[in-house]
Design brief:
By secondary structure, the protein is α+β, with helices and mostly antiparallel strands. The chain has one domain: Roll (Ubiquitin-like (UB roll)). Helices cover about 15% and strands about 20% of the residues. It is built from two helices and five strands. A five-stranded mixed sheet has the order 2-1-5-3-4, covered by helices on one side. A hairpin with a 5-residue loop joins strand 1 and strand 2. It is globular. The model has no long low-confidence stretch (mean pLDDT about 95). This is 2Fe-2S ferredoxin.
Length: about 110
């Protein structure tokens, strides 16, 4: 089963259900995650920074491609509400601008 590891949330590991976006899987694991537009790909609030495993993600959605063209998503960034992990392990960081104030972002010691 594919796995998402959020490095700056203490290495939190989320098992990925097939066919669901990263955001849907994160929410199913009861992890708070910023998604101002409700997961519709209309903002960049749910952005992730890819550390490793990005090649195992679904291709960028039209919404992500638009943000990439606008310079609002870098080559190592994706929207959690738009991408699907198809296999393996994906390691990510929550960018500073997408962090929630009530969570403590840190690396596992």
């Amino acid at each position: 089963m594919p796995k998402l590891v959020i490095e700056n949330l203490g290495g939190l590991s989320v098992e990925i259900q097939e066919g669901k976006t990263l955001l849907q899987n994160i929410q199913a694991a009861y992890v708070d995650w910023m998604h101002p537009c409700g997961g519709k790909g209309r903002c960049t609030g749910c952005k992730i920074q890819i550390v490793s495993g990005g090649e195992q993600l679904s291709p960028p959605s039209p919404q992500e491609q638009r943000f990439m063209t606008q310079g609002r998503l870098r080559s190592n960034e994706r929207l959690a509400c738009q991408c699907i992990l198809t296999q393996g392990e994906l390691r990510v960081l929550v960018p500073h601008e997408c962090q929630l104030p009530h969570l403590h972002y840190h690396f596992k010691k």
